[in-house]
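Help needed: design a sequence for this.
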């Protein structure tokens, strides 16, 4: 078979290992092609045959060697026709799409239309892909966010200040929650739980009175500022940390600083967990291709790798809920 591999959406630590592992397995029997710049690469025919040796030097770095984009190949019917035409001309049989909801949604649509068979691998530092416990990149992003928060904490303690750390997370607060738990932050704000900033200020003031410093972690997705959107309808986020810091300083009278590690937590070398997860996902994706099991996404559930139909995944974000939301309420809920 001729198999294409692409990475779409935001980059995430572990992508290069996933691509490398799949190519290393598949090249024994098949022709494997890197599709550069995600789905945009199929629209522009940015496709190149690769071997695992070509990818080895980049396998353990962050980012994605085969590049990415937020291009929607089904934004209109003209694009869909171009996609089908190019796939036919390239004689591609299967695409392994590594990405989040949007990238996987395009893979599912390509499968539904009969353009080509698809297997998905879940990737996003936000960890919000439905049907899997963990996505590639999440563990590394949390570890990097914790490092940033701990470094920030030392200067808060030294100067007796309040600090706000803004982390990524559009609709799901997984990074903020895990960062807050790992650092025992005095308050955490996530998109899933609306909270009064006056209440946050009260909690911060009490924490400061007890130890002469305070740390707040906030997910960027708690507030949208409008503006242009990408091809999947997502607005650019970021900046709420600065706004919250200004509010807290005015409300409490305490000197407050904000830091936004932003894309830094997304570009680090993958953690051991993300490396192994990427290998397990890529192996499962290869096995799915060999068995003719298409239209599925690899998933991690309770320590085991399984498959789930892509159609069940698309449009269903996995938000902080159940035991995780209960844990959030235990530390930062409204009850005293």
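Sure. Designed sequence:
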């Amino acid at each position: 078979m001729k198999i294409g591999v692409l990475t779409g959406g935001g980059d995430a630590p572990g992508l290069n290992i996933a691509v490398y592992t799949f190519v290393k397995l598949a090249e024994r029997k098949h022709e494997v092609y890197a599709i550069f710049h995600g789905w945009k690469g199929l629209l522009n025919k940015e496709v190149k045959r690769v071997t695992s040796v070509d990818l080895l030097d980049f396998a353990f770095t962050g980012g994605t060697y085969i590049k990415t984009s937020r291009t929607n190949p089904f934004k209109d019917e003209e694009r869909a026709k171009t996609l089908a035409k190019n796939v036919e001309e390239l004689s591609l049989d299967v695409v392994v799409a590594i990405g989040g909801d949007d990238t996987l949604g395009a893979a599912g649509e390509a499968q539904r239309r009969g353009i080509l068979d698809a297997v998905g691998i879940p990737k996003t530092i936000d960890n919000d892909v439905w049907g899997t416990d963990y996505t590639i990149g999440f563990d590394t992003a949390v570890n990097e966010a914790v490092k940033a928060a701990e470094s920030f904490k030392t200067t808060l303690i030294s100067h007796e200040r309040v600090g706000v750390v803004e982390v990524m997370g559009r609709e799901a607060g997984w990074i903020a929650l895990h960062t807050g738990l790992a650092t025992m932050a005095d308050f955490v704000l996530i998109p899933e739980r609306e909270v009064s900033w006056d209440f946050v200020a009260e909690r911060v003031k009490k924490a400061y009175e007890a130890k002469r410093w305070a740390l707040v972690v906030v997910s960027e997705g708690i507030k949208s500022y409008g503006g242009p959107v990408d091809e999947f309808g997502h607005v650019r986020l970021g900046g709420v940390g600065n706004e919250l810091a200004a509010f807290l300083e005015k409300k409490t009278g305490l000197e407050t600083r904000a830091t936004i590690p932003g894309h830094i937590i997304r570009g680090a070398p993958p953690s051991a967990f993300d490396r192994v997860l990427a290998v397990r996902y890529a192996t499962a994706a290869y096995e799915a291709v060999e068995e003719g099991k298409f239209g599925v996404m690899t998933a991690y559930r309770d320590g085991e790798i399984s498959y789930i139909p892509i159609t069940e995944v698309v449009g269903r974000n996995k938000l902080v809920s159940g035991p995780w939301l209960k844990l959030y309420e235990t530390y930062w809920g409204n009850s005293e």
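The first helix runs from residue 15 to 26.
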